[in-house]
Structures are given as C-alpha cells and as structure tokens.
Amino acid sequence: MGKKTKKPGKGKEKTERKTAKAEEKRARRESKKLSPEDDIDAILLSIQKEEAKKKEVHIDENVPAPSPRSNCTLSINPLKETELVLYGGEFYNGSKTFVYGDLYRYDVEKMEWKLVSSPNSPPPRSAHQAVAWKNYLYIFGGEFTSPNQERFHHYKDFWMLDLKTNQWEQLNLKGCPSPRSGHRMVLYKHKIIVFGGFYDTLREVRYHNDLYIFDLDEFKWQEIKPKLGSMWPSARSGFQFFMYQDQIFLYGGYSKEVSSDKNSSEKGIVHSDVWSLDPRTWEWNKVKKSGMPPGARAGFSMCVHKKRALLFGGVVDMEMKDDVMMSLFLNELYGFQLDNHRWYPLELRKEKSTKVKLKRNSELEPDGPDSNDKINIEAEASGVDDRDQISEYDEEADDEENNINEMSQNMVANMQIDDGGSIKSAAKPQQSKSKLNFQSSVSPEIVKPCGRINSCMVVGKDTLYVYGGMMEVKDQEITLDDLYSLNLSKLDEWKCIIPASESEWVEASEDEDEDEDEDEDDSEEMGEPGSYGEETDDDDDDAEASNDGAGSLQMGDAVAFVRGEGKNLRRKEKRARIEQIRANLGLSDSQRTPMIGCHLFPFAAWRILEGFLQTY
C-alpha cells in the first residue's frame, strides 16, 4: 500500500498554527512574569514603606479572630501562660496566595483577641519559626510567596519582639544561617538551636541538614559541623524538633532526591526516623522505634507536655490504581514517652458512668421468662498514666474487642456477600427470634478536630491547643481558623473554643488551567519538583519498615477515607478501591471467610468497612 501524500500547504499551515500558539503562550507567560503581583521586590518595598509610616505601637482590643491560615506560629507567652501569641501564616483561595505579617495575642481565659500593630515590624512570612524566652519572642526565616505563586522569597532575617512593649527589633548579626523555610528551632537553656529547612529557586530545591546555635547571652551565631565519621540526620524540612532534659529529639520530615532513572526526575521522601541530639557534645544518635509508632506522614505537629511529646495530624499519600494519588488527612493523637522512647496512640478516656447496653427483647415470647433478659457491658476506662500508657491502652482495646465480638457473632451469622460485592441479610425478618437494640449513653457526635496539616500546637497549663492548618476536600484546599483545646490531665474531651469559619474558594479560569498545564510540562522538561509524599524513607530496619512502609493503611484510616470520598465514586471505582484497601489491609478472600473456631473480630471489622463502602 502506497504512502499517502499530503496536500500542498497543509504542513506549512499546521506549523504556522503551532508557532502562533507557542508565541501566544510565551506572551502570556511573559506578561505573568512582568505582573506587579509577581514582582516580590516591589511588593516587599511597598510593605516596607507602609511600615515606615507607623510611629507608635497600637493595640486593638477584643477584635475578631484571625483569618484562616496555615504555616503560622503560635507561642505561649512566657510572662503569662494563659496567653497565646500568633504571628504570620498564609492562605490560598484557589486563585491567589495571601501571606500575613500580623501579630495577635489571645487570652484563653477571657477568650479575647488583641491585634498588635508596631513600627519596624518584620515583613509578612509563613513557614518561619518562633521561640519564646524570658520576655522576648524570637523569629527566624520563613518565606514570602507572590499572589500567583510564581515567585518565592526566602528570609534569613532574625527578629526579636519585646512582649512587654510590643516593640520589634531586627538582629543583624554575622554568621547566621542561610535563607530558608520549613526549618525548626528549639530552646535549650539560653541557646536557640536551628536545624534543616529548604530553599526553593523554582528551578532547584535545596534541603539542609546544617546545625546552628544562637547564644542568647552573648548574641552570637555558631555553626556546628559534623565530626568525621559521626552520625548525622539527612537533609529535610517539615520535621519536628523538641527537647527533654539534656536531649533534643528530631522526628520525621520531608525531602526530595533525584532518581536514578533516565529522566533524572525528583522523588519525594517522607521520613519517619527519630534522632536525639546531645546539646553538651553536639553528637547525634539514632533512636530505635518501640511501642506503637505512627505511620509515616507529612505535615504533622508536635509539642511537649511533661515527660511526653504529643503528635497530631498529618497527611498520607496513597497510590491507587492507574497511578492515582489520594491524600488522607489524619486527626490521630500519639504520644512519645521521652524517658523510655516508646510510642503509643493517645485515646480519650471514657467517663466512668459510660455504659453500653445490648437489650434483647423476645418477639416470639413477649411475656416469657426471657423477656426481661439484658446484656450489660460496662466499659469503664481507667485513668491513663504516663507510666503505663501502653498496658492500659491494650486493656481498653481488649474491652472494645469483646464488645465487638458479641455483635460480630450476630452480624456474621446474618450477612453474606454476593458476587457483586453487596452485603445482604441471610435471614428473613420474620424468622428472627430476637432483636438487638444497640443503646449507648455516649453522645453520637464526638467533638474532635478534623484531619489537617501545618497546624499550630502548643501546651499551656496542662492544656493542649490546636489552631488552624489546612486540609483538602475534593480538589479544594480548605484553610482552617478553628481553635481546639484538650485537658491533658483528664484526657476526657476536645473542646472547640473557636469553630471553623467558611473558607473562600475561587475556581481557576481556563487560562490559569492552561498555564498550570504549561508549568507542569516545563517542570517535567527541566526536572523541577513534583508533588510531595511519593515515598517513605527506608532508614529504619526491616521490622520498622513493615510498620511504616509506603501505602500502609490502618482500618480506622480506611473507613475515614471511604466515608470522605465514597459519594463521588462510580461503581467500578468503588470496587477498585475496595480491592486496594483489601490489599493494604492484607485481607484476601479466604481471610474474609471465618473458619470454625477462629476469632471473629477481623471479619466483623472487614464487614463493617464494606458496609460503609456500600452506603455510599
């Protein structure tokens, strides 16, 4: 068969159309480059001029709560433990990014906000760090993002806020760390310790693992360099840094590395290792995981209360079929015992009066001797103490399992799964000899912060405070402005001090979508960073990797994931995700069929999960 010939002029017309389209794209991108919204130098200069107009400190009393934001800092006022100091942060509405430089002070007893405006204030920033010492708040680094997210500016300035006078002062000192954001700072005696972070130039992202010390008495910076052959954590950002006695702990974080494939593309690594730093010798040691550690995650928050560190939130990226990535935002609370290095999940204590009753009312013999039979299961939670957190958690888990076993015997006996995956009852209603009414004195709606990342978390007067952060709903980023508290002495309930307000979201226009596609194409060509959370680190041993490996999914997470996303799935997608969750949970078809004499708890749990799936 002969080769078809092209009509004269057709190739030329096609080339001209492509050239014109490319020129149009180039012109549009050039106009974006010259946009005033992306000229960071001009924006920061304008802000500086406005700051120069301020002549004195002005405090607005009892103002509305701050606008939604993430990547801000929240600190306990060392002069008043019932006051929180909030600074900076960022907000993205789907079209523009807003970076803040405002300073708020919140009285937790009066439940009132103050807005402080001072001359010579730092320029707006997010992903910075703050440390309070004596009557001062110290702030270092951070980043400023242009509204269109086309330009980034990383800071290396160091600021000091006098909490008595609300006056700012910039500390221009030699030997400070390079510009960065996503780093962490911790206070040890009279020293501020800075580690890690990253620097983004759009074409290149550099992650740091350098260690700097600032002496608050001598006002001097010092870089601590690793000794030959010594252990040292890898470069990362977004980790957590916390102190206990003469040990400083580092946990988790995120970084990227160039893969070994032909394209030399970058892949993300979610770290889950734990390190301890001795501030007397500046030696690092790796801490072996023990207890029940959380799975690898990014964007979590941590703070210290007495002998334990508390971890909340984070996100897990799960790769589904057809290279689809799904993000699961977590609201779990974990504890890390600082003296013996053991992890454990922190559960709220049940009230002593809590009773779960299963009433069995006979239908065939309503007046018979069995008509008043009742099964009462009392689930009284004993106090959770730091010394035996794990053993008491196991006891509560056993009680919970016993309760579920009682119900699962009835569930499994009366349910079967057809070929289509649907759950049907194997017994007709009129054939049932008894009816189970599940009654509980526990409130059906438990107050608890939703899953999120990049929130603020501090402890003051035995109370944990969680503020703000970000989560995703479908394709929208929801920035939060809620404030929750938890009494760490009682561990009985979360209290919502400030509920979340409605978040504004602006859908991107077609031109913006095209530009984003072009940027993605360009990033692939230039090897720029892609999405994060693609892999977990393999620094831990095989036993730890089995617990924290990439794509791992717990039963509770799976239910939350399905309930949050299931309404928008087609039937085929549902089945695909069921199979994916099945694989992650290690539940084969044979494992879903109970054998004689085996334990029914896992089968009941799996059927409950499928019940959630079929509901949506």
Compact overview of the structure:
The chain is α+β, with helices and mostly antiparallel strands and 616 residues long. It contains 8 helices and 39 strands.
Description:
With 616 residues, the chain is of the alpha+beta class. Helix content is 21%, strand content 34%. It has 8 helices and 39 strands. The longest helix is centred in the middle third of the chain and has 25 residues, at 389-413. It is globular and about 75 Å long.
Which helices and strands, and how do they pair?
Layout: H1 10-33, H2 40-52, E1 58-63, E2 73-77, E3 80-87, E4 90-92, E5 97-99, E6 103-107, E7 112-117, E8 129-133, E9 136-140, E10 143-145, E11 152-154, E12 158-162, E13 167-170, E14 184-188, E15 191-195, E16 198-200, E17 205-207, E18 211-215, E19 220-224, E20 240-244, E21 247-258, E22 266-278, E23 283-287, E24 301-305, E25 308-312, E26 315-319, E27 325-329, E28 333-337, E29 342-345, E30 355-362, E31 374-378, H3 389-413, E32 415-417, E33 423-425, E34 434-440, E35 456-460, E36 463-473, E37 476-487, E38 494-498, H4 510-526, E39 535-536, H5 542-548, H6 555-565, H7 571-585, H8 601-615
Parallel strand pairs: 22-39
Antiparallel strand pairs: 1-7, 2-3, 3-6, 4-5, 6-7, 8-9, 9-12, 10-11, 12-13, 14-15, 15-18, 16-17, 18-19, 20-21, 21-22, 22-23, 24-25, 25-28, 26-27, 28-29, 30-31, 30-34, 32-33, 35-36, 36-37, 37-38
Helix pairs in contact: 3-8, 6-8
Alpha carbon gyration radius: 28 Å
Q: Decide which structural class fits the backbone.
A: alpha+beta
Physical arrangement of strands within the biggest beta sheet: 1-7-6-3-2
Mean pLDDT: 75
Total DSSP helices: 8
Total number of strands: 39
Cα distance spanning the termini:
55 Å
Largest sheet: 5 strands, antiparallel
Helix % is 10-25%
Strand portion: 25-35%
Poorly predicted sequence stretches spanning 5 or more consecutive residues:
1-6, 353-390, 392-443, 523-535, 538-572, 587-604, 610-616
Can you tell me the overall shape?
globular
